[in-house]
Amino acid sequence: MITFVKSRVEPYFGGVMLASVIAIAAMFMSEHYGAPVMLFALLIGIAFHFLSENERCAAGINFAAKTLLRFGVGLLGFRLGLAEVTSLGFGPVIAIIGFVMATLACGALMSYLLGRRMAFGMLAGGSVAICGASAALAIASVLPPHKDREQDTLFVVIGVTALSTIAMIAYPILFQALGLSDLESGFLVGATIHDVAQVVGAGYSIGDEAGVIATYVKILRVALLPVVMLVVMLSFRGAQQQRLSVPWFLVMFAVCAVVTNLGVVPATPLALFEEVSRWCLVIAISALGVKTSLARIAQVKASYSVILIVETLFLLACALLFMTFIGI
Fold first, then answer.
1. If we measure between CA atoms, which residue out of 161, 215, 157 comes closest to residue 191?
2. Closest by Cα among 131, 139, 190, 201 to 165
3. Which residues, in sequence order, are CB contacts of 328 under 8 Å at separation 6+?
4. CA 11/CA 153 separation, integer angstroms
5. Of 319 and 159, more confident
6. How far is CA 286 from the centre of its chain?
C-alpha cells in the first residue's frame, strides 16, 4: 500500500512543493508589504521558470496549475453569503448582473473589431467582469483547446492583476473626488475592481461601511462565475464538437454555495474551507508563474492589451452611469 501511494505521489511531489514554497513566500511578502498576493506569486514563480521543464518538477507544476486550481475554484462557493448581498436590495443586484453580462459582451465585441480570437475576448471579459485571475483560470478550463490557450490565460492573469492593483489605488480617490458617500463608493468598488483582495483593500481604505458593502457586492459578482462559465461553454459548443458537460468543479462550486447558505456548516470548518481555497488558488497561480515564459508573453499582440483596458474602463463607465441616473 505504501509503495502504491508513493508511486502515485512521487511524480508530483517536487513541482507541488516548489509551487507551495513560492506561495508561502508570496503570502509573507503580501502581508508585510501590502501588495496583492497573486502578483507576488506570479512574479516569484516567473523567476523559477527555468524549472518548468525539469523532470522532477514538470508533472507537479502541471497538477498544481490545473487540478489544484479547479479544486480551489470549487471551494470558492463557501465564500458566498447571498443573504448579506441581497440586503442591498434588488436594484443593485440586477445592476451587477447587467454589468457582468455587458462586460462579457464587450470583450466579445472588442475581439471581433480588432480581429482577435473570440475565445480571448470571452476570457478577458469574464475575468474583468467576475473576479480577475481566479475567473480567468476557471473560464480558460472550459474553453475549446488551442495551442495559445495557456499563453492567453497567463497574459490575462497578469493583465487583470496589474489593472486591479492600479484600480485599488485610483478608484477610491476618484469616487471621493466625485463626492460619493461611503455606501455609494463601496458599491462602485465592489462592482468594478477585478480581484477580491483589491476590492477589500480599496473598500476599507475609504471606510468600514464602504469595505463591508464592497465585499458584499464583490461576492455577488463571484456568485455569477458558474453562469458566465456556462455562457462561455454554450458559446463554443460547436467549436468543441462534443456534448455539453458541466465540469466537476463547477458542480462543486454550486453545491458549496448552497450548503454554506443553508447554514449547516459550522463556522470553524467553513473558515478552514475558505483558507484551503485561498491557498489552492495562490499555489496554482505560483505554478502558472513557473510555467510563464516572458519571451512568449512579449509576443502577445498589443491589441490584446487594448481589449483588457477597454473592458476595465467599460465596466467602470457602466457602474458610474448606474450610480448617476439610478443610484442605490
1. 215
2. 201
3. 88, 89, 91, 92, 183, 184, 187
4. 25
5. 319
6. 14
Q: Which range (95-99, 148-152, 170-174, 274-278) has the least confidence?
A: 148-152
DSSP H or E stretch at residue 52: none
Burial annotation 210-246 (CB, 10 A radius, 16+ → b, else e): bbbbbbbbbbbbbbbbbebbebbbebbeeeeeeeeee
Q: State mean pLDDT over 224-233.
A: 84
Entry pTM: 0.70
Residue 137 has pLDDT above 70, yes or no: yes
Is pLDDT larger for residue 7 or for residue 23? 23
Residue partners of 49: CB distance under 8 A and separation at least 6: 289, 290, 291, 292, 293, 294
Counting other chains too, the contacts that 206-210 makes at CB distance below 8 Å and 24 or more residues apart are: 206/172, 206/175, 206/176, 206/182, 207/182, 209/182, 209/183, 210/182, 210/183, 210/185, 210/186
Q: Is 276 exposed, middle or buried (0-12, 13-18, 19+ CB in 10 A)?
A: middle
Name the 3-class secondary structure at 300.
Answer: coil
| Predicted pLDDT at 95 | 92
Cα–Cα distance for residue pair 191/175, rounded to 1 Å: 13
Cell representation of residue 175? 469616487
Confidence of residue 310 (pLDDT cuts 50, 70, 90): very high
Q: Which residue has the higher pLDDT, 19 or 117?
A: 19
* Sequence letter at residue 35: A
pLDDT at 241: 46
If 0-12 CB within 10 Å is exposed, 13-18 middle and 19+ buried, where does residue 299 land?
exposed
Is residue 5 classed as helix, strand or coil in its secondary structure?
A: helix
Q: How many Cα atoms sit within 13 Å of 268 on the Cβ side?
A: 0
Phi, psi of 61 (to 5 degrees): -65, -45
Q: Rounded mean pLDDT of 229-236?
A: 82
Among candidate residues 136, 145, 120, 154, the one with its CA nearest the CA of residue 291:
154
Distance, CA of 101 to chain centre: 16
